[in-house]
Every structure is written in structure tokens, then in C-alpha cells.
């Protein structure tokens, strides 16, 4: 029987099965890696789709509506129906658009959040690749979504899209700095850039307590990075129609939509990893609950909170938004760095893995 | 846009003066972009078309193009009887149809010198104020969406409006196109059903809670305040000069309400305030609508008491065949969007010889371009939403 508390035991079991089939050496590793990536990438996509259902039901809940409740139990399969519909619809390329960029951009937009799954610590030892620059990799890969947004805006040959793309670049510049800086405090306390290391070092106390400012900055800047609602200026539906994806139809739009919700979930997972103790249990005596369950529960909770903010906040104007980023969040993240340095000096060894 | 020419040959020799260089840098404008906002756009409340010239995000010029919904209503009025035209007025501002009915009938009564009895007056007042409530609920809800509360505020506004519409449905048998008020009274077969006034009272009891919800969602929200306070200021002189009326005018601090300035119906005998704003910005126009909802509630409760004191079924004498003597008349009421005026000219026949309409939405809209210039494109939508127009009334 597979023990759920340790994903690596699944790996060991799988390895034995494959050895039983007669696989050896490099081929064995290759097949194992392929299976692992296949499973996780598909989980990423399916989870993104599932999140669209959660997102819509939550929106309906806030807005006194029912939401999708017909396809499958309580409308659970609505996202599958939508996916099929979008695949069957014609994907139009507008006249005058940069055809190649236009077609390739939805794919560029989708892959960063799937790639981020590579270093997310799902459970004890349950990371696809526990690289020692995991945190750095996370920020590098997630910020790749913005160039895609800009390319979409530019290649569409549409003025609304162009405005959206321009906003996206301004937003990226203003919020990437505080986002990375806010996580730097965590890295200082951990003394490691490995995501597993970050989780391990929270066994005494979750980082949300010593790093409260950092967590707040990460929450806000993360939503900005995700271009989620109060900060969804690149797509501001009441101003510039749908912003960068105005011209996208069919599954190309679907990929953008999936990428947005998938990124929200990934963001929740990263927040969980950095500040909520990752797969660590809430209190030690609850450790009989498998770490994977802890991790997923916290991540879904964060997704729920992220979307809750979405539907109850008006949207910033671009100039207010950028000055908020540069004049409030960036100085605050520097202050957070100073606080973290002091904490490192005071709590020697308390937060070591 | 003037260009500062820098001679490249001279520049290569390093002979460009620092002043020249600064001037050249100062003239580095981004190219102006012309954007057509609408007629197909999520926030144009129908089929309005802005032709906006943008300097990156800032509005340099804004032109309004309308007429996409034109139905030549004033001409259509001439081909129908006075009573038949009531149904047509429903289709003008379809969020507050009762008030359109009332304006038309008030003008007809002025033309023919008809009196309206107490019960009909009370029913008109209640129905009219319920319509104003429904219009303001949409107005504030959609304004929230224009500022960016996704559709949360719209759905809230629409849900509560549904309760109000149910009251009007019980009274007139229709949800939106009432065709209820008649010259000389109200429709003879549409008296208030039994228990109706208690039902309306119950809906009115729920209203303060709904308004409180709006305050929690929008009024007290930091982002909402940042987006609306000080944005799109319309100062009182400009407002009066462009003959803006309704909440848009009162938001600028001008205390002008047709119900008080040129009273009609039973309004002089009712106790209510005319709320005004201070700064004339988007926030004040929004707040005036919220306050007006509270005042409408107050009016409805008073009128309900007076309605209960009258004898059921006694709706007065609304003539079956309305044939006014030759002459002309102008009457105006306080519509949901502002001063709604009708001008009728009769040649003694069954149909009006000429009907002219002063629609508040149309005239309020003319103040928009001046308010938008210099603001960002996001503000255009917010300012436009704060004026709260209805395209059915703009284009007729």
C-alpha cells in the first residue's frame, strides 16, 4: 500500500514496478521523470480548470447568484464542458495581427505556472526537483507570464490590447521588485534557497508571524503579479474591454483564462510554502494528517482568500496603482528586509531546517 | 505638435547646445492614439460611442456620438392617441418607466385642465418613487462596476431592485413596461390590490439594510474613494450653464429639484429633503443617489399612509376618450435622471399635433466631454457612470 504521508514512497514503489518490467539505468530514470512530470503537469492543468469552477461558484456566492450548477454534481464538470466548447470554437486571428506571435502567446502564457510546479514542495520529499535555487527559480519562471501578456497585447493589432500590454509592463516593473524583496526575508531566516528548506525551517513557527510585513507585501504584490482583480489593469474589463486578450477567441482565450486561475493557485501554493509552513501541520499533534493534505488544504484556502478579495474590491487606476507600488510597497519591502536581518541576529538557529 | 529639429551633421560634431537637447527631449511626446470606445463596449450602458483621443492613458479629446438607438419617438407620438402614447413613453427610460408615464400624463392634464383625485395621486407618487428607487439602484450598482467592483455591486443592486419591481408588478401587472398612469388618474382596472401597501412597507423596511451594504462595499472602500473623490469635478456654474439636472446637478451643490422648485402632484404636502453634494465629483453624485433613495423611502411611507386613508376603487375620472382642446402645454417632472419635460401641441384631435421631449439623460451627457479631458481613460468610464444616463432616453 502506498503511504500518502511521503510522496517519495510512491516514487520508490513506481521504481520497483519499472524495475520489474526490466528497465535499468538511464532509461529507468528517464521513464520515471517522464511519468512524474506527466502527472504533475496534468494535475496543474486539471487543477487550473477545477479552480475555474471554484472561482465561479465563489463569485456567485458573493453576488447572490447560483453559479454553474447543472453539469455534473453541483456543476463540478462545468469547466470540462467549457473546455470542450472552447476547443471546438473557431480561434480567429485578426487581420493585421502578427500571426506567429499571436498564436504562440497563449502557450507562453500557460507554461510558467505549470513550470512553477517543478519546485513546489507538495509534501515531505515531494518535490519534482528540489533544486538549491528553488526560490529564485520560482520568481524567474512566474514573471515570464508578463512578457506573454505584453506580446499578446502587441501582436493583436488592437488598441485596447496595446493599452493592456503597456499597462502589463508598467505593472511588472513596479511589482516584481517588492514581490522578490518580500520573499528575501524568508530566505534570510532560512539560510537556503531551496523550497523544501524553506518549509523545513518553519517546524517551530510559521513565517507569517515573524514575517508579517513580508507576507502582506507578498500577498498584494503577488496579486499584482497575477494581474488578479483589484490589480487586473491589463485586462480591466470595464475600461479596455478585455485588455490584452480582447482579440483572442476559442481555446486561445481558454489558455489565458486557465493560466490566470492556475497562477492564482500557484501563488497560493507559494504563499503557503513561504509563510504558512507548507506541508507542516497546524499543531504538532495533528501530524497524523498526511502532509500532502495539509499542503493542498492551505493552498486551496489561499486561493479562496485571493478570489474573495477579487470580487469585493474596486479597481485601481493605473497611476494610483504604480505609485502605490513604487512609493509604498518598495520602501515597505526594504523595511521588511531590515526587520528580517534583525530577526536573523536575534533568533539564531530557531528557524534552521 | 511642433518639432525641434536637431541637425544631425551638427550633432555629430557635438555642436548641439544643451538647450536644444533639452527642447528635443521635452518634445518627446508619445503619438496620440484615437480609440473608439463603443458602441460595442462593456461600459457604455447601451450603445453610446465615445471617440477618444489619448496621449498614452490621458484623455486629450473626447467626442460623443449617439443615435444608434434612435426610434423617432417624437414622430411616433404624433400618430397615436394621447392615451396610446403612454405605452410608448415606457420605452424611453426603461429603468424608471412610471416617471415617464407620469410626465406625459401631467402634460396632458395641463393641456386639458384635468384634476386628479387623492387616491390616484397617492398611487402615482408611490409608483413614481418606486421607479426612482429602481433606477438609482441600477445607477449606483452599475457605477460600482464602472469603477471596477466586477459585477458584485450590479448584482446586489439588481437583486434589491427585483423586490421593488415586484411591488410595481403587483400594482400594474407588468415588470418594467407599466403603461399604468392615465391622463386624469391611473388605469381604471389597476387599483392597488389588497395588502399591497403592507407589502410595499415591508420592502421599504429592508431598504436601509441594502443601502448599508452599498456603504460597506463601496462608500467606505479606500480604492473606491481614491477612484471617485475629486475625479470629474463639475462646478456649479458649468453645471447650470450646460443645463444639467437631477442628481448630476445636485451633486455639484445646486439645490434644484423640480418636486420642490415647480411642485406637482401631492409633493408640496409631503415632507422630504433635497440632498446635495459639495464638490461635484463622482463621489458626490454617487452619494446624492444614495441619499435620494433614502428620501424616496420617506416619501413612499408618507404616501402609503395617505393611500390607506382613501377609499379603495375610487380612482377618479380618467376619460376613456381623451380629446383636449386646441392649445399647447409644457410640463416637467423630476425624473430619475433629472428634469423630464414634455411639450404638447393639440389641434383638438385625438392625437397630439406635436410632441417634444426634454430628456435629462441627453442633456446631462453634453456636460461629459469637458469633465473628462485631462483624466485617464479609466476615469472616463467612472465619470460617465456617475452621470448615470439611459440610452433609451438619450436616443429616444
Give your account of this protein's structure:
The complex is a heterodimer of chains A (353) and B (396). Chain A is built from 12 helices and no strands. With 353 residues, chain A is mostly helical. Chain A has one domain (92-346). Chain A is globular. The relative contact order of chain A is 0.14. Chain B is mainly alpha-helical and 396 residues long. Chain B has a single domain (74-395), classed as Cytochrome-c3 Hydrogenase, chain B (Orthogonal Bundle). In chain B, 49% of the residues lie in helices and 12% in strands. In chain B, strands 1-2-3 form a 3-stranded antiparallel beta sheet. Chain B has a 3-stranded antiparallel beta sheet with strand order 6-7-8. Chain B has a two-stranded antiparallel ribbon with strand order 4-5. The longest helix of chain B is centred in the middle third of the chain and has 30 residues, at 118-147. The A-B interface holds A 59, 62-65, 159-160, 162-163, 166, 229-230, 236-241, 310-320 and B 33, 35, 41-43, 56-57, 144-152, 155-156, 159, 217-218, 221, 223-224, 226-227, 376-381.
Short structural summary:
Chain A is mostly helical. Chain A has helices at 7-20, 25-62, 78-88, 99-116, 134-142, 145-155, 159-190, 195-200, 212-225, 250-275, 291-310, 318-346. Chain A has one domain.
Q: DSSP strand (E) fraction of chain B?
A: 5-15%
Taken from the alpha-carbon principal axes, the silhouette of chain A is: globular
Q: Based on helices, strands and strand pairing, what is the structural class of chain A?
A: mainly alpha
SSE arrangement of chain B, N to C:
HHEEEHHHHHEEHHHHHHEEEHHHH
The class by helix and strand makeup of chain B works out as mainly alpha
Helical amount among residues of chain A, as a percent range? 55-70%
Named CATH topology of chain B: Cytochrome-c3 Hydrogenase, chain B
Number of strands of chain B: 8
What is the residue-averaged pLDDT of chain B?
A: 85
Which strand-content bin applies to the residues of chain A? under 5%
By oligomeric state, this entry counts as heterodimer
Number of helices of chain A: 12
Shape of chain B: globular
The radius of gyration computed from the alpha-carbon positions of chain B, rounded to a whole number of angstroms, is 25 Å
Give me the Rg of chain A, rounded: 21 Å
Q: What would you give as the CATH superfamily of chain B?
A: Cytochrome-c3 Hydrogenase, chain B
The count of domains of chain A is 1
The low-pLDDT segments of chain B are: 1-9
By CATH, the architecture of chain B is named: Orthogonal Bundle
